[in-house]
Amino acid sequence: MPATKYNKVCSQCGSDDVFLDASAKWDIHTQQWVLDEVTEPTSENSFCNECSDSTTLHDVAWQDTPADLLHAALDAHFNKKDSV
Description:
With 84 residues, this protein is of the alpha+beta class. Helix content is 17%, strand content 39%. The chain has one domain (5-79). β3 (22-27) and β4 form a beta hairpin. The two termini are 31 Å apart.
């Protein structure tokens, strides 16, 4: 049985248009910002775009829709490596 997936949502409005503060550092080799540290979500570092305010985040169980399952199957089919 597949593991349960969760979505992070705003505790006030239920939106999943949420963000969490994190820190990044510059990688001279890739010439990109690389995620360095993600802190535990609190009301001081979590933000909901729908509410336009700080929030606390809640986990809600998420189930694949038929479109998600189709996308995963197509991705697996077209990205499988040929055996040598």
